[in-house]
Design brief:
The chain is mainly β. It contains 1 helix and 11 strands. It has a single domain, classed as Porin (Beta Barrel). Strands 1-2-3-4-5-6-7-11 form an 8-stranded antiparallel β-barrel. A hairpin with a 6-residue loop joins strand 4 and strand 5. It is elongated. The two termini are 29 Å apart.
């Protein structure tokens, strides 16, 4: 979807050049934006408020940026006995993550309402998870009077990326945009602690560390204002 959106922005370039309009006021030095998720099927279009970005233009073509990403997931499930569905257990799960990104952008002018840019960004993130259940020892199979507690802590990640993106001003000082990056991402998945009331012991496991080099993209389309 991101590739199609970039092709759409390119197709708009010629129109914006012909119109000779910038789409924004040159005295506006700041932008704020959220992510617009274009979901298919029965899911509605939604604003991803936990994904926020702020930019400050030091010069008309040079901006510093700060991003905040956060997510929180809570889920409860009922576990049924395989032979007697009147016997049930419960499973509760909580996941959270947050990240902060700092970077700089160089904007390429002279293309009307379309404002392409390139830049760089450093991102640091952390997160954790917990799960617990009754009448089960693992959250999947019914076990009478069973209990368990699992948690993950100490997870972190960091990434250094080159950025390539574009903003297109649909009306004055209001834009949509897309962005892709290329860089290195290092992620440590933390330490997992597992306990159940049968063994009555806590087992800690060090989870894997992954380092990747490649292309990354933000989900959805950015939508923001310049002020």
């Amino acid at each position: 979807m991101k590739i199609k959106f970039f092709l759409g922005l390119i197709s708009l370039m010629s129109t914006s050049i012909i119109l000779g309009q910038t789409g924004y006021s040159t005295d506006k030095e700041q932008t704020a934006e959220v992510v617009l998720n274009l979901q298919v099927g029965s899911s509605p279009i939604s604003f991803d408020a936990p994904g926020l970005r702020y930019r400050f233009f030091l010069h008309p073509d040079l901006a510093i940026r700060a991003s905040l990403l956060a997510s929180l997931y809570n889920n409860s499930e009922v576990i049924y006995d395989a032979g007697d569905r009147t016997l049930t257990g419960t499973k509760d799960q909580n996941n959270w993550s947050m990240g902060i990104g700092l970077g700089i952008e160089k904007h390429i002018g002279g293309v009307g309402k379309l404002q392409p840019y390139y830049g760089g960004q450093f991102v640091f993130g952390t997160g954790g998870a917990s799960a617990s259940g009754t009448n089960t020892l693992n959250g999947f199979v019914y076990v009478k009077d069973g209990q368990y507690e699992n948690s993950i802590s100490g997870a972190y990640s960091f990434a250094v990326n080159l950025l390539f993106g574009a903003d297109y001003y649909i009306v004055e000082n209001v834009y949509i945009g897309a962005e892709i990056g290329f860089g290195i991402n290092h992620q440590f998945n933390g330490y997992q602690q597992q306990w159940d009331n049968v063994s009555d012991k806590t087992v800690e496991t060090k989870l894997m560390t992954v380092t990747n080099l490649g292309i990354s993209s933000n989900n959805g389309i950015r939508m923001g204002i310049r002020f």
